[in-house]
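User
New here, help please:
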Amino acid sequence: KCPLSSVLSNDSIAVTKFILLGFASMDWESRTFLCSLLSSAYTGTLAGNLCIVWTVLRDSHLQCLPMYILLGNFSWLEISYVTTTVPKMLSDLVSLGFPISFPACFMQFYFFLAMGATKCLFLAAMALDRYLAICHPLCYPVLMSPHSCWVLASSCWLIGFLWFIVPVTLISQLSFCCTNTLDHFVCDPAPLLAASCTPAPQAEHSCYALSSLVIFATILFILASYGLVIRAVLRLPAGAGQHKAFSTCSSHLAVVGQFYGSGMVNYVNPAASGASGKVETLFYTVGTPLLNLLIYSLRNKEMKQALKRTLLGEQ
């Protein structure tokens, strides 16, 4: 009756594999179209971000600039973020009902949440960089030296990957009995908690409390930083400097808006699930990284020039 499980005792059965339902309700033509669309977005995201990482590593000038050190780390994070979920998603679109093992599901769950938290921290770090560059230009070379920037980037990675260890551990210890189907295309808190056959208020509350904390703390920091930046820019004489500052700020705020707007639906509101939750998750899992590449990275004139030099083999 429960083929993806193992017997623990006479009356207890534990799930050893899950089936991600994903978009199983869609017909074959729709799934084929979605698979093609996601494949294109995934390929574009990988190619674009790999180019940015390679350019930052190869260009000695960019390696000394804090903004591009953070951007290189952010691009690598985007590559890892989409790779955590999209390959399995594409596989499920092509072959319905192919199970994912219990350990693999929780590895995906952990890395998905950890990189989401890391992304929030990097967006806050980028806002800090812009604030210091525009509001404290004389102190900026000292406060954001390459060494300081690497310490900041390392802190984002470390804190992000430690942030959700407790709730992931608590959820992994729940009893899932014979409920081996998850109504999602990714191992996520809502479907996993829904599949548990025992109440788990502690695990649920810790997960959504930590999600709310990292989301609201970083977005308030970003908004406060850019509030001060905009005030400082408005005091400058109208001209190229003011336009450049506003251009940088608007690009970053567009990335922040689309990521936080979609992420809040699922990770601040525990009731978010079902079809609407899938659409939101799909957007910030696949759509946001691709849009980030177009908005924040490839619109950058200096990055495009460095990328051109790298591709042409110039120094």
